[in-house]
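Q: Predict the assembly, please.
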Amino acid sequence: MTISEKKENSENRVIMYREALNEAIMEEMKNDDTVFVMGEGVAERGGSYKVTAGLLDEFGKKRVIDTPISEASFTGAGVGAAITGMRPIVEILFIDFTVLIMDQIVNQAAKYKFMTGGKGRVPIVVRTQGGSGNGLAAQHSQSLEAWFYHIPGLKVVMPSTPYDAKGLLKSAIRDDDPVMFIEHKLLYMKKGEVPESEYFIELGRGEIKRKGKDITIISWSNMIPRSLSAAERLAEEGIDVEVIDPRTLVPLDRKLIMDSVKKTRNAVIVQEAVRRGGVASDIASIIQEEAFESLDAPVAIVAGKNTPIPFNLRLEKASIPQEKDIILAVKKTLNFKIG
Amino acid sequence: MSFREFWRDIYKNLYTIRVFEKNCIRLYRQGLIVGYFHPYLGEEAIAVGACAALRSDDYIVSTHRGHGHCIARGGDIRKMLAEVLAKEAGYCYGLGGSMHIADVATGNIGANGIVGGGIPLGIGAGLSISIRGTEQAVVIFFSDGASNNGVFAESLNLAAIWNLPVIFMLENNHYAVSTPIEEASRTEDLYKRAEGYGVFATAIDGNDVKVVYEKTKEALEVCRSGRGPFLVEAKTYRQGGHHVNDPGKYMPREKLDYYMSKDPVQTGRKYLINEGGFSEDEVKRFETEIENEIKEAVEFAKNSPELSEEKYFNEIVI
Ligand SMILES: Cc1ncc(C[n+]2csc(CCOP(=O)(O)OP(=O)(O)O)c2C)c(N)n1
Ligand SMILES: [Mg+2]
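A: Predicted assembly structure:
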């Protein structure tokens, strides 16, 4: 149990990302009887990363459901339950396994509102986690947000802090559309301030994680802490970086991004996912379309290499953006000269 | 092959798997192995019995709990150890690790990080055999958890309608991570699912290597004579948690004790003495030989280099 142990002092209460997620689910399940949780090992075991710990005791087996390893069907069951009046939170252990639920998400959930002329709603949240950094190798380390970003009808949320995780999950659960809620395995133990009083973060509203005037870094999920530490290093050299976290990729807070880029006149996008066909490429094209005259240099992208994630830890590291890669890209962008 | 040689080979594999896993668990605890590591302890008889019945040109499909399958099929211990220690000399240059060992030389189509992911691959191997018209066969290893994934049902049906030479070797260890089979299936006798698809099926004691060997041999005869697929449900139990970091506290003591008393390696040891004619001293010497071989392989793997970044990005990544 995580909630009851918290101190009274709500203002600077510090908790872990996974505890913040747990609180969001607890609160929403208390608030609304139609919210329920389903997935492998979510009940008795409390989830592989302890996000659903304590829920079974609080809400019982009817609303905290352990499933067999039947991802396609239990996700589809979530979609069907959502269509018929429930608000399921379905957990898929690794984003790598979401490829098994693609029909239910892409062809069923994402299309339902459209195909019913807007009358049918699918208020499902699929919680999953991605990313590398643990030596879990090629089938447990991918960053697949672009797959969902590509599909009209889905919302895509990728929180980078405990505060954002809680506020965004609460909004995702109340949202009437299917939401892919993508956590990062390296963030679960990260701590941050989370107020005790209830709050929500609107889907589609990004945040400036660090104010700066020379260049804008746009990134999300576990690339936010990395971009922030790169920004601190660059500050020592007199480069003032603004770091923007859209927090939700769909809907995307274009205004926040454009305002920042128009101010700094330079942009670097950092994503953990492989470069090819990634969200960064799309955001770069949007910036180039909407803020071309403001740019002093081409928009740079720092992304994962186009490779499956290797098991060997050193090579795994070499396959995804590191602080030094971000620093290099920032400097290169600022040194850009035409001709 | 004489009885003596037969049981010698069987026991060699049983004991090698046991010692391999114990060594790897130690290396894991020392921080030398990272990621997920799922030991095959307690299930050795299934891989060893089944593979002993196979021909050298047959195929197997393995799982995330795959070291036993690889060893029983004649895999190279040095390459396996180098792989789990993330070294260049490993099966996959250290890029795959424990869950991604495949061995073309022994027809091991590979371990898999996706539960159930290998089952259709085994159907594909059966299909290629059937198109080529050879007398090869396939053993698909998978566990109770995977049997609840849709691919299992679809694959059973495909194997049935295409009459494929495929053995579904269901290692029912009664758990998918911490979820007991009673909670994931209304019947614990998973072999019964085959009947509805018109597939021959039987349940056996998966801890007795002789039983597994004989039943696999029988099933293979059915397969090779063109009478189609066979499902063998081998009942067994893990001798520990799901992976190295899982203490497995949820496993009831009595049941664990029961299966410990039916330890597959000890059972195999008795066969080696009673049917293979080995003396206790001979077995001990044999065991020391195996232990030394693995010790040597561990040293080799520990001391061998990792793949360089240059080589990785310039030669391997495409
Ligand atoms: C498609 C998929 N879902 C979930 C997982 C996570 N997972 C890894 S092993 C495992 C349990 C597998 O149980 P079972 O098939 O019985 O194999 P066992 O571990 O008993 O050998 C689970 C759920 C996975 N790897 N792949
Ligand atoms: Mg199992």
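Residues 1-9 of chain A have pLDDT under 50 and may be disordered. Residues 14 and 284 of chain A are 35 Å apart (CA to CA).
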